[in-house]
Amino acid sequence: MLIGDRKQQSYEPRIVAFLCNWCAYAGADLAGTQRLSYPPNVRVIRLMCSGRVDPGFIIEAFLEGADGVIVAGCHPGECHYEHGNRLAERRMTTLQHLLGFIGIEQARVRLAWVSAAEGRKFAQLIETTVEEVRALGPFQQFPRRAP
Amino acid sequence: MNNRVGVFICHCGKNIARTVDVEALRKEAAGLPGVEWAEDDMYLCSDPGQQLIRERIAEQNLDAVVVAACSPTLHTTTFRRAVESAGVNPFRLEIANIREQCSWVHPGTAETTHKAAALVRSGVEKARRTQPLEPIHVGLQRAVVVIGGGVAGIQAALDIAEAGYPVHLVEQGPNLGGRMAQLSETFPTLDCSSCILTPKMVEVSHHPLVTIHTLAEVTDVEGSIGNFQVRIRQQPRYVIAEGCTGCGDCVPACPQVVPGEFDRGLGARKAIYIPFPQAVPFTYTLDREHCLNQGPLIICDRCAQACEPRAIDFDQQPSEELVEAGAIVLATGCDTLPLSHFREYGHDRHPDVIDGLMFERLLSASGPTHGEIRRPSDHRVPKSIAFVQCAGSRDPERGKAYCSQICCMYTAKHALLYHHAVPDGKVYIFYIDIRAGGKGYEEFVERVRAEDGINYIRGKVAKLIPKDGKLEVWGVDTLLGEQVKVEVDLVVLATALVPSQGIQELARVARVAIDGDGFLSEAHPKLRPVESQTRGIYLAGTAQGPRDISATVAHAAGAASKVLGLFSHDELVEEPTIARVNEALCRGCSFCVSVCPYDAISLHEGTAHVNETLCRGCGACTPACFAAALGPRGFEDDQILAQIRALAC
Amino acid sequence: MSLPQVLDRHLRDLFGSGRVNSVLGAIPTRGPLGMAQLARTPEEVERFTLSPLACPNLLVHLTSKEARLDPTRFPLAVLARGCETRMLNQIFSEHGLRRDQVYVVGLAHCPGAIDPRRLSAQLPVLRGFPEATIEGEEVVIREESGELARLARTELVLERCRHCQNHEPLIDDYRFDLVEEADWIEPVSVDEDPGVEAIDAMIPIERWAYWRSQLERCIRCHACRDACPLCYCENCILERHTPCWVKRSVNLPENTAYQLLRVMHLVGRCTACGECERACPVDLPLGLMMRKMENLVREYYGHRSGLDPSGEHLLSIFDPRDTTATARLEQ
Amino acid sequence: MTSLAYYPGCSLKRFASGCEIAGLEAARRLGIELVELERWNCCGTVFSMSSGERMHHLGSLRNLVRVQEAGYPEVVTMCAMCQNTLRQVNNEVRGDGDSLAMMNRFMDEEPAYRGEVEVLHYLTLLDRLGSEAIAARVERPLTGLRVAPYYGCTLVRPPSAGIDDPEDPNIMERLLEALGAKVVRDPMRVECCGAYMGVSKPGTINVRASAIHGSARNSGAEALATMCPLCAHNLDAVGPAPDEPALVVFYFTQLVALALGAKPEQCLAATQRVDPRPLLSTKGLLEEPQP
Amino acid sequence: MKTSMGSGSTRIPLRQQVEELCEQSIGTCYQCGNCSSGCPMGPWMDALPNQLIRRLQLGLEDTTRFASPWVCASCFACGVRCPKGIDVPRVMEALRVVGLRSGEDHIGPHTIEKKRLSQLPQIALVAHMRKATG
């Protein structure tokens, strides 16, 4: 099977990223057209808006083996659907604090604003998140399959 | 679940193949559950590539397709057409972005291929759970409401009516014409403004498909693109349009003399009046605000007596009308910064400090001075005039930060026309930078600059001091580096262009965005200048920003072409990825109602209902609903959870 | 032990005038605790008691499955203390019930409700249903033979009563004072919450160790969900197959997912009444999470659920001034 | 009788004493007692604007500390320059906690300034009373006296320390109408009189004075009214070129005192070059006010 | 008069020094001349305010050689009217401070005859000394 068992190699954090179609996803594409480079640990799911991200998705990602989650949408005031990102902000903040309360390091869940013109910022977001999650070590709290 | 998924992996020449082991990826994909066929090709987006997909779908009887290639923003439509032509629902296609977000940004290591494999797995998991979706067809009202009867509104109305669609042209004032009707000649050709505007006004008033509503305002806009309900409130004219022959006998009979708005307060008019001789519709208007008869009590009916066709009716009431329209064009035009804004120029203390539009009225043959340039204070012909450019424009501190674009040109025109009328007159034009970018504009300004008696002085005016019947202008010549003090008979301020009165209220009613300066916000400054950010509402003319008449006409024609593009379909085809409610699970808690940015969800007998034309498929309602009773087709919970499982391991 | 005369006659009039079909209140049991009872006839009214010992979970009987399957009980009168009227407001704002379906008998000047577990822990020898009254900061337990015990109020009352801000009913159709106006003293409301503060003080690894030991004990009996007056979804997603958010198996990952999703569905709605913790057969400290989240939404968004019957849901709206994680991160 | 702290400033004690005497008398007649601070020092005019020159603001700060010590919430000053400097220093320290802390530390023997004192100009004080209240107390209306108020710069600029609109002030016009005078609104009323340039370049003042007098005369005024000792010096003591006619230059407080019925000697100190008495007598404003 | 653009003097460039002193951004000025047209002391200036700002924009070190800042009565007319919101009087003050800090005073009590000293009010003397002496 191609999927190497991550634990034998040095620990490479697995990050799932929910990107909003109009801004963050376009920013990620721009990072590609600019041929920037960033660590391959991030796997992207495209949604129409960051307001679509259900707190349950974050919990599901951790259950299924993710070590960190990124939710990236448009900057406040620039949401394609007016205020989807503002709703995401409240949902993610409350979830971060609940997870923090039961012992999940808040740095594992990261909410960020990346516009369609910020390819470089997207690449930096991935780099810093991967480094921070690597420092925290693998997600051991409640993965379905042992890490 | 679709279990006959076809995975097609693109090399994209070397772009993907350089860092992703396409062959290993193909083998990996072939082994995934639900995948019937996996193949790679050099260029999937090419015709042979499309043909390959069509053939495989037929051969292998595939029911869903995953294309692992470049970003979906590039070729989604092309691949959807290819899939559809092979008999598979276009929404059973999923694109895995293994170029911009994988091969281009990662080195050629095994980990990059693992990531590509994960992205393909995620695409397959979603493709397996896609439902066949049909685009939503929504009925389309092929009629338009154009708000604003200036040259922009008239141009848009004519273009749309010419294409055979009914137009409701709504004008706030008593007659059409807007700002352009107030002008004398126009730059750079010095055509007389009413000579080129009047034919258009007549044409639009006689056009069978155009209904003109004057003294009318839009008070409410409901619905969305294709199906707007526009409420038009008609103020009473107190003159029966059909009866009035335009003979004007009523005017001498009327005792009330009032400063004329059309002449910017320079000329007077009676309570019953018509703004200018070429007005369309050519019907007189009784201004009850200044008429002796206040409210129902009629104490003076001299105009009625003088009116031979008995066309005056003091009891007319305001009326309202609800119009169905598929699109709305906002052509509300502009105004100039009020003179009271310029305290350092002391306008409110001195009548001989006027603005460009008032000078136009002085130049206009139908103006208060019948085309003779006479100054408002003592009606003498001014022997010297100072023109002050950038009055309030390019002044972020106390006025408007932007450049109003047209003042350099109309000031040069004013100077030239004054020079023709008063050959020995002295002209001082105080400017910062002359901006004459249009066709034939620079040549026009150079011609004016060459006239003797016209002095262009580079420096902004600080103050105007009234001094024994004249005005002392405190200027500076920054090229010489010396202060300049000049005594003139008349000062004309080229005041900044600002949005017209009431635009804030109209923008709120029509739910369109306005920018910091109050102009209507366009969808995209470069690529979509004639569309507002609200679908189905288009912008025409200076309502969107300062521009001259030729740019306004082009802008209005652009808006009209957008409307015609919309009306060319017999119905609206909407993306099917909009929200759908599972009535059985809905608790009627209305959490989704308040979350929707487009008010597309409403409660009917305790269950949520989605208005399919308003919903844009953003999905913000789905996490708000705990019962998970609604969600956008194409981004359902089960699809995303499957993607998470495919990606996270 | 029955109701005071005035209240008794009022409830009977409600039946007589046909204003209500049933009355929901608490009746004494054989042990030192009360039980929720739905009186369908005027006669059953006299079994009700206002004793601070008898404060069971009433409101769940307004939104439970039985309530939905038995619409004849509405319109229903409920004897509701301050905290219960706050929960009613939240239910009305979510259209769980219509205001006209509930006749609210507001029990004003509420001195607090005694936690039966804390009482039996302090007085193991207690038998039967003693007469208990709360006078100021003291609870007095009396039996026929006279005064049995006089204990500190803050030691005995329910957790929610220790932090109570609503001694008076927020809404009522009829008001009855539990304590005479003359000798009513506003009970002391305690701000600190040792349980939550202890966990806040821990570092993430310690916190997880604590919660791991708790969540491992969860048997997924759904008692917490079924005891919550706000969990009344037709088909709760925690039990749904397609899509499957939480798997059936009872182990740490699925239990954690279950509790996290349940709490996330209550953020901004829960009034920290503590009924979930009371109902838990394995005594999981669920109240800690509820109170932590209630404090968070108040501190971050100035939101207190149940104060405005027509209020918007916290997570359905936003405020440009939200001070949130992103704002701090972006600095 | 409300009492307010009063900061006279250097010039009002000697050169512009006419302004102070008349101002105090007028205030008394309006029921306001201006209590001069026991200790005050130079206001450190002209406010030094460049950053890092905090030490030049100490003069004003000490005065504000004196007012704070005396327990008054407000301090009234008649001189336009004092008002401008005090207010600019007040605005600056209120807006910047660090510089206030630093200056407080520097003035270690002085109590720390808390930033609660309001600086009030005499004209704002009168304006606050309101035209009706003042008109009611007028005993000798200045009917027929055509006066052009002259603001200069420091009364209205910079806007953060001005008492009225920098381009179109109206406060003196309102008050003069209340006193019954004929108000002349001269456009040069906010143009600079040359200020302290007279010290190193005397010629400039005559040019500025003749422009201001000329414009006022052109607008039909017989007299100028100002509240700045330096403007009064430049417009009256220096005045336009010797051969040019010069208008009478009053301190505004002198007109107020005169209208409220004070004896002329009390409000017309001898320092005015152009003697106002001939003008006043033609207007019958030197006689005792009729009851 | 040969002007050298930003000659390599060791001192920090004049423009940067002035910008720090007056906390204004010299670059935003688009040379409209509004400050110069309304300046009451313009006739006595060897370079109008906008010209001084232009020289600072170009980084000409000899801008301090001009006498205009010493004729400026800091009357704030220019500051109020600048469309770009530059506090021009503070720029002039900064030029004066640069001059003063290089040791040259522009007025000395000894230079004024005794007779005039008695005529001048304290307010004129204090204001001018404050502005023109380091």
What are the SSEs and their pairings?
The complex is a heteropentamer of chains A (147), B (649), C (331), D (291) and E (134).
Chain A (H helix, E strand, L loop, with lengths): L14 E6 L3 H10 L8 E6 L7 H9 L4 E6 L10 H19 L6 E5 L5 H18 L11
Parallel strand pairs in A: 1-2, 1-3, 3-4
Chain C lengths: L4 H12 L5 E7 L5 E6 L20 H4 L1 H5 L6 E5 L1 H12 L8 E7 L7 H7 L8 E5 L2 E6 L2 E7 H4 L2 H4 L11 E4 L16 H8 L2 H12 L7 H5 L24 H13 L10 H5 L6 H16 L23 H6 L1
Parallel strand pairs in C: 1-3, 3-4, 4-8
Antiparallel strand pairs in C: 1-2, 5-6, 6-7
Chain E lengths: L13 H9 L11 H4 L11 H9 L10 H4 L5 H5 L6 H14 L12 H6 L2 H11 L2
Helix pairs in contact in E: 1-6
Structure report:
The complex is a heteropentamer of chains A (147), B (649), C (331), D (291) and E (134). Chain A has helices at 24-33, 55-63, 84-102, 119-136; strands spanning 15-20, 42-47, 68-73, 109-113. Chain A has 147 residues and is of the alpha/beta class. Chain A has a single domain (13-134), classed as Cobalamin-binding domain (Rossmann fold), CATH 3.40.50. In chain A, helix 1 (24-33) packs across helix 4 (119-136). Chain A is globular. With 331 residues, chain C is an alpha/beta fold. Chain C contains 14 helices and 8 strands. In chain C, a hairpin with a 5-residue loop joins strand 1 and strand 2 (34-39). The longest helix of chain C is centred in the last third of the chain and has 16 residues, at 286-301. In chain E, 46% of the residues lie in helices and 0% in strands. The two termini of chain E are 29 Å apart. Chains D and E meet through helix 9, helix 10 and helix 11 of D and helix 1, helix 5, helix 6 and helix 8 of E.
Strand content of chain D: 5-15%
CATH structural class of chain A: Alpha Beta
Oligomer: heteropentamer
**CATH architecture assignment of chain A:** 3-Layer(aba) Sandwich
Mean pLDDT across all residues of chain D, rounded?
90
Could you describe the largest sheet of chain D, including whether it forms a barrel? 4 strands, parallel
Q: Please mark out the parts of chain D with pLDDT under 50 across 5 or more consecutive residues, or reply none.
A: none
Helix content estimate of chain D: 40-55%
Order of helices and strands of chain D: EHHEHEHHEHHEHEHHEHEHHH
Give a short summary of the structure.
The complex is a heteropentamer of chains A (about 150), B (about 650), C (about 325), D (about 290) and E (about 130). Chain A is α/β, with parallel strands linked by helices and about 150 residues long. Chain A contains 4 helices and 4 strands; from the N terminus they run E-H-E-H-E-H-E-H.
Can you tag this structure with a few keywords?
heteropentamer; B: 649 residues; alpha/beta; FAD/NAD(P)-binding domain; 4 domains; five-stranded parallel sheet; 28% helix; D: alpha/beta; Glutathione S-transferase Yfyf (Class Pi), Chain A, domain 2; 2 domains; four-stranded parallel sheet; 8 strands
